[in-house]
Design goal:
This protein is an alpha/beta fold and 428 residues long. Among the domains are: 94 residues, Fumarate Reductase Iron-sulfur Protein, Chain B, domain 2; 135 residues, Rossmann fold, CATH 3.40.50. Helix content is 53%, strand content 7%. Strands 1-3-2-4-5 form a 5-stranded mixed β-sheet. The chain has a 4-stranded parallel β-sheet with strand order 7-6-8-9, sandwiched between helices.
Length: 428
Amino acid sequence: MNALRDLSAYRARLAACVRCGACQAVCPTYRETGRESTVARGKIELAAEILAGRMTLDEDNRRAFAACLLCGACTAACPNQVPTAAIVAALRRESGMAGHSSSVSRGVAALTGHPRLTRRLFGSASLLAPLFLKKVPETSGLRLRFAGQALRNRVLPPLPKKSLFDLMPERLPGQPGKPTVAFFAGCSISYLYPDIGVAAIQLLHRLGYTVLLPQSQACCGMPATSSGRGALAAELMQINSQAFSGADTVITACASCGGMLGHLYAEGENEAARQLAARVKDIHLFLQEEGQLAAFAALPRWRERPQVCWHDPCHLKNHGITEAPRALLRALPNVDFTDQAGAALCCGLGGTFALTQAALSRKIAGRKAAALATAAAHGTALVATGCPGCLLQLSHIIHMEGLSLQAAHSISLAWAALEQAQADAIQP
């Protein structure tokens, strides 16, 4: 079963594009390039020509389809809801099968696509982290061997010694009568930011929910989809569909994983994957719909509260999840929320996009850097987000620009508030 439908399955959806240009105003890549081939309607036209046999996936066309973040902004703005990201993914699949995807994207897909290998390598890598995640001197051969041009001067967090699966049990029993939820971790939270996963799981448990962390879960499949590895994406869909088959609600704290699980899974031909997609819920939206924000608002306000702004991850914003994270931040007792201009600007990471399209990624990031500089000038001390990929990119931007800001996941801030409230309650 295919991870995504073949391009031919989108014939009618391609014809639904009326060339209105609504996508131009929201596309991060078109904003920087001004080239028709980088915006949705241009890609739709190219896809239609390829499907009709009047064009081929030559180098120029592959380059056009590579210059896409798969963020979904175009579909959100499209009056006919043409699923450009799914169409681009189908074209990348065809291109990938022909051996034209980048070595970087193929490597990331291969690593994240094998859960047992990933966990084994993580255990080994954590021992070598002090060596490889330090600033490597320019004169070292390791620069050439391991980093590559796109990774030079890239700011990376220290690799944790333990993954999320080492830190948390597979099941945390909650209060009687409270629902059971399952937590989808994703690769970034599992291995790069396990503290975010711990915060999310502990927070849900503290609010009374039974929380499952299926050990058999795998990568969501976004890297595989981005690199055109359809068979691997299908395999990962099957693994995750089985891992979460018994859960009524699957919670994500990674916007990119949520976009893949909740939306691109729904575009596939795998019925189990489509059923999983219908049960996926972003953690901010879940807390809001469950009426849990009142629990945070009722906590005593901290005497010292840094000013915090919000960065909209593309895969939340473009699926209409913008108010729930802001509502959570407004309710928290440990921060003062202020909505800053430029919150909706793309950070430019886009998974492997920052590596395969490094120059374009830096241009997109430049706009976000300017917005963050303005926020810092107005007293903002923290920028919160709901995507570990965005967190990585924001931290990099802050460091490179020398801004007086810190980046944090919103759920980490929420858990800190609950944890402090509990500590205060047990003090004599």
